[in-house]
Structures are given as structure tokens and as C-alpha cells.
Amino acid sequence: MNASERRAFLLEGTRTGKLSTTRRDGRPLVTPIWFVLDGDDVVFTTHETSGKARGIRRDPRVCLCIDDQRPPYSYVIIDGEATLSNDVDELRTWATRIGGRYMGGDRAAEYGARNGVPGELVVRVVPVRVVSEAGVAD
Questions:
Q1: What is the mean pLDDT of residues 69-79?
Q2: DSSP string, the chain
Q3: How many structural domains compose the chain?
Q4: The pTM of the whole model exceeds 0.70
Q5: Measuring CA to CA, which residue among 123, 76, 68, 118 is closest to residue 98?
Q6: Which range of residues forms the domain containing residue 106?
Q7: pLDDT at 138
Q8: Are strands 120-133 and 36-38 parallel, antiparallel or unpaired?
Q9: Which domain CATH number covers 17?
């Protein structure tokens, strides 16, 4: 996939990302996430006490996999560096956008209000390396 094809793939429908971080003892932790894009950055939210947040605080290097599980199968894998923000205004903005993508525009504000509160964090993943393939089974 070229850059515009990857972007279209990542924004299509309600695909979830699978985020990989590392637990304190070194074991991997993979968690599904809802996300949106801000330019090339992947943005999602999580609670400050989640395994995702704890892992990112220890080591900001993460890996995301977003795939299409229907034939002919496609995927994007993003290695990146994650940052955390607890700015409530920023959080409300991103939580609303993410809620709109996954729950529909009519429920975006509801999800923004629910997830845009103190204790939640904005996570921004800046891609360092991207690997993608469309039509794996073609």
C-alpha cells in the first residue's frame, strides 16, 4: 500500500487497532483500541491506570496492528513512539472524534463526555516504521 491507500485503509469503517506494549516483567500486552488519525499520528484514549498507560510510561515504544479479516486480507503494522496527555480539553476533543467514528455521529458528544474526563489520557503514537500489505491472499 502507498501512503494514501494506508490512510484510507486505517480510516475505513470501525476497524480496531491491536496495541502492543510491554508489561513490567517483560511480557507483551496486546489490547484492542478505538482510534482516529491526526495526520499520520494514531490517537486513542485510555485510563491512566490501564496496562496500556503503565506500559507506555515505562517504555513509549509501541506496535499497532490494524487488519481486515475478510478475504483477500490486508494489514497495516505501525511501530511508533507514544506520548500521554491528561489535558482535559484535548481529551474531550479526541474522545468525541473517536466516539463519533465507532458509535456514530449522533452519539459522538455522549462518548466525548463519558471518556473526556479527568483520569483518562490521550495517547498519540507517532509512527517510526510502517509495514502494510493489501490483498495478502490474492
A1: 96
A2: --HHHHHHHHHSTTPPEEEEEE-TTS-EEEEEE--EEETTEEEEEEETTSHHHHHHHH--EEEEEEEE-STT-EEEEEEEEEEEE--HHHHHHHHHHHHHHHH-GGGHHHHHHHHSSBTEEEEEEEEEEEEEES-TT-
A3: 1
A4: yes
A5: 123
A6: 3-133
A7: 87
A8: unpaired
A9: 2.30.110.10
